[in-house]
UniProtKB/TrEMBL annotation:
This is LysR family transcriptional regulator. Belongs to the LysR transcriptional regulatory family. It comes from Bradyrhizobium barranii subsp. barranii. Keywords: DNA-binding, Transcription, Transcription regulation. Residues 2-59 form the HTH lysR-type domain. InterPro entries: LysR_HTH_N, LysR_subst-bd, NocR_PBP2, WH-like_DNA-bd_sf, WH_DNA-bd_sf. PANTHER family: TRANSCRIPTIONAL ACTIVATOR PROTEIN LYSR. GO terms for biological process: positive regulation of gene expression.
Length: 312
């Protein structure tokens, strides 16, 4: 049997016609090439080359062998090309989901990182309502979903992403515009847009209002943060929004005010329990976490997130 190294050396001599040429092609010493050729001929009992005027020519009995060697080398080249394609993300697809609040700014920034590492990777992004995430994962439509809260479900695992805070957003020229922070009591003095007590973020503010016995007037309900921002920008009221929707100036034309009361919340990546994650989705999760933690409220140093937090 010939080893792949012997195949490589014999082919190099065949292609270049000299021991020195083969040595340069393979970036090794000429004596080493010569010794391996002689050893291969001796162990196999076949003479591969005739030497004429310092050049090596295939012997008639070795012609069929060289044909097979070229076939082997072609398959090695094909394998190398396949590995290269996989390394660039070719032949694969990243299928991920996200709730709207994280998809607006954070997901695109994470995808930009993924694209740099895997330039040929196919990418499919689904913007999901919270209640749609379960079927998306359990039916195998995607590998992960960025979530604004943690569900109680035996078929899902959750990995921490980042902490966030809520902000009050107002249009330019509003009475509150230009201020750095505002209290819950002050917020309730103005018409509110989009506060839904059943929404993960809405529950936070609803709880604050309830604890302080504050009445509030919701004039317009809107499900998604981008719509809420547009309504505020149009001067139709003020609103409470999560910081990830408006991070990095994601929605210009509105002003952000920090809320005096604590509004911290946690975000997660949800995955199907027991399902192996591809390298591509692992890198996406790593990138998304890095982007979100770069803008989250102050965080104690050294708190590394576990790889996967399993529900008991």
């Amino acid at each position: 049997m010939m080893t792949l190294r012997q195949v490589e050396v014999i082919r190099a001599v065949m292609v270049t016609g000299t021991i020195g040429g083969a040595a340069k092609l393979l970036n090794v010493s000429a004596p080493g090439i010569s010794r391996l050729v002689k050893y291969t001929e001796r162990t196999l009992g076949i003479r591969f080359f005739q030497r004429q005027n310092g050049r090596y020519f295939p012997t008639p009995e070795a012609e069929n062998i060289f044909e097979q060697i070229n076939g082997v080398y072609k398959k090695v080249d094909d394998l190398s090309e396949l590995i290269s394609k996989i390394g660039r993300g070719g032949l694969s697809e990243l299928r991920i989901g996200s709730v709207p609040s994280i998809s607006q700014v954070m997901v695109p920034r994470a995808i930009e990182r993924v694209r740099r590492r895997y330039p040929d990777l196919g990418i499919d992004i689904n913007i999901l309502k919270l209640e749609e995430a379960i079927d998306y994962l359990l039916l195998g439509r995607g590998e992960c979903v960025a979530m604004s809260y943690r569900l109680e479900h035996s078929g899902l695992d959750f990995m921490p992403l980042a902490s966030g805070e809520l902000y009050c957003i107002v249009p330019p020229g509003h009475e509150l515009a230009g201020r750095k922070q505002v209290s819950a009591a002050e917020i309730t003095r103005y018409p509110l847009i989009g506060i839904d007590p059943n929404d993960p973020y809405g529950r936070i503010m609803a709880g604050i209002f309830a604890r302080h016995r504050l009445d509030y007037n919701i004039t317009i309900r809107a499900r998604f943060g981008t719509t809420v921002c547009a309504l505020v920008k149009a001067g139709l009221g003020i609103a409470i929004i999560d910081q990830f929707t408006v991070a990095h100036g994601g929605y210009p034309g509105i002003e952000l005010l920090k809320i005096t009361e604590p509004t911290r919340f946690e975000t997660y990546i949800a995955v199907k329990r027991g399902a192996p994650l591809s390298l591509h989705v692992e890198y996406f999760i790593e990138s998304l976490r890095a982007e979100m933690r770069a803008v989250e409220p102050s965080r104690s140093e050294g708190n590394a997130a576990p790889a996967r937090a399993r529900k008991k």
